[in-house]
Amino acid sequence: MIEVFHKQLSHDKCKQLIQLFEDDPNKQQGKIGHGDIRPEDKQSTDNRLDFQENNQYNDIFYEELQHAIKQYYTKYDVIDGSTCSYWEISSQYQMQRYYDGEGYHVLHFEQEFSCPIRMLAWMIYLNDSPCGTYFPYQDTTINAIEGDIVVWPAFFTHPHKGITPNIGTKYILTGWCEWSLGWMKNKYMNVLPARGEQCDMIL
User: Fold this and answer.
1) Domain total for the chain?
2) Which domain, by its residues, includes 135?
3) Cis previous bond, 39, omega within 30
4) pTM of the model
5) What parts of the chain have a pLDDT lower than 50?
6) In terms of C-beta density within 10 A (0-12 exposed, 13-18 middle, 19 or more buried), how is residue 194 classed?
7) What is the residue-wise DSSP string for 28-96?
8) Which of 2, 42, 76, 169 shows the greatest Cβ crowding within 10 Å of its Cβ?
């Protein structure tokens, strides 16, 4: 299921993250898969980040992300940890910028040979944009609305792509939840109680 948790991240926090990204010297040309640069498939500027590293991004949005993930697994309690293997928010994530005319042009899904332990994906839209994300198997388009958090299964059942070519400039944060292999334990790995905000569910 695809869930959209509306207006989870404030306007000020979204603007703060965008400014950090623009000032960050670690930005690089967007990559896919094993780190390949294929502009015919994806055109973007990315910053690869990690919750275990001491960077300025983490504390701005992680609490809101935790709340969204908590709401997701509370609704779909078969994955709440009591009836399945333990999983957690992956420490690795990315911030991405898509300029006018760019985009992630090809269908893809998040669990593949190089990353088999991914089980959920998440994305946060950091600004309003005319071009959201298309899920063909669900026959739906998720609108890019500032502060919205989207969570969906990482499997082949939920391939997706950007609405391309992108119009204007779009900023997102994106990452994953993974089956736990027993490492990556730090202050970011504790899930907070859900706040119960309204969300949309799409099959």
Assistant:
1) 1
2) 2-25+51-182
3) no
4) 0.88
5) 183-199, 201-203
6) middle
7) EE--BTTTB--TTTEE-EEEEEETTS--SSHHHHHHHHHHHHHHHHHHSGGGSSSSS--EEEEEEEEEE
8) 42
The answer to whether position 87 is within a domain reads: yes
CA-based diameter of the chain, in Å? 45
Q: What is the pLDDT of residue 52?
A: 94
CATH number of the domain residue 14 falls in: 2.60.120.620
In three-state secondary structure terms, 140 is strand
In a domain, 134, yes or no: yes
Reference 123, options 108, 140, 142, 139; nearest CA is 142
The whole-number pLDDT of residue 47 equals 96
Q: Which residue has the tokens 């504390």?
A: 59
Sign, Cα dihedral of 45, 67, 58, 152: negative
Residue written as token pair 């994806």? 42
pLDDT in tens, 95-131: 999 999 998 989 899 988 888 999 999 999 999 999 9
Residue 43 domain flag:
no
* Beta-strand relationship, 170-179 and 42-43: unpaired
Residue 31 placed within a domain: no
